[in-house]
Specification:
alpha/beta; Rossmann fold; 2 domains; six-stranded parallel sheet; 13 helices; 12 strands
Amino acid sequence: MPRKLQMKNILYIAPDISVKGGISTVIKGFLSTHLSRKYNIILVASHVDGSKLRKLIQAIAGLLITAYYLIFKHIDIVHIHGGDITSVMRKYFYFRLVKLFKCKVIYHFHGAAFLEQYLNATLGWKSRIKSLLEKSDIVICLSDSWRKSIIQIAPESNVRVVYNSVSLPALDEEKREEKKILNITFLGLIGERKGVFDLIEVVSQMITDECNIHLTVGGNGDISRFHDEIEAKGLKNNVTYAGWIEGDAKDKLLRNTDIFVLPSYGEGMPMTILETMSYGIPVVSTFVGGIPELIINGTTGYMIQPGDVNNLYAKIMDLVLI
């Protein structure tokens, strides 16, 4: 029998790998490891970027494709990846479908703002989410803090912590040349939750204080507001918007980064921090989600309380003056 036929078939239900976000980055990371050689991983896209209609069509198509594989193929494990509460609600229907076929289910929880959203959900959806978590064979979360939160919601769930991972880049051990401008980088969803507007306020103050710095922002989200903020604060010459970057462009940017800042109000286990630290770059971030399990405060970076703009300024300045 050919070796391929002996492999276990694992159905991955997750956002399409073209979707801009951390889950897609994690999936791409899995596919680049030995796992894709050891197991037959079948990807089913439950979500795509685009209009509401396109997202609805993809969600329905994903359910139909999942049903096809469950009916006509032997599936050993279904690995469902979910994010915040809208994603969890969408994945609930996949979960119910998979359970009809009595397949083993791993639910991989990537949510960042989920807990707050869950508290505001209806009683019906709270009950469904609790059922999903407790009836999955294993629930994977990204940090111990999230493990505790999930157990509060679903005490009977079988929760395991599996940290995100990144490939280590090949770094030149030679010392960097002394530069006139210090490069600060932010990568993530542009909006309130990631704290990018707090960072812009701090950068504006640092420029006023005659610090020779440049901020590069990469990501998607509320681009219009971002540009309005830059325009209003007169930072066009001090801030660059790089768009959504990955691959070689991200590698080049991180090799030229001196300080990485992610002043988030809510996180799971940020891939951007893991990627940044793999380049040996100091990080300034916040005491939220799994971040305290990544950063040794005062050694590999600094953490502040979210929204504390004065302390954010102070911690970045500590690194600028080193």
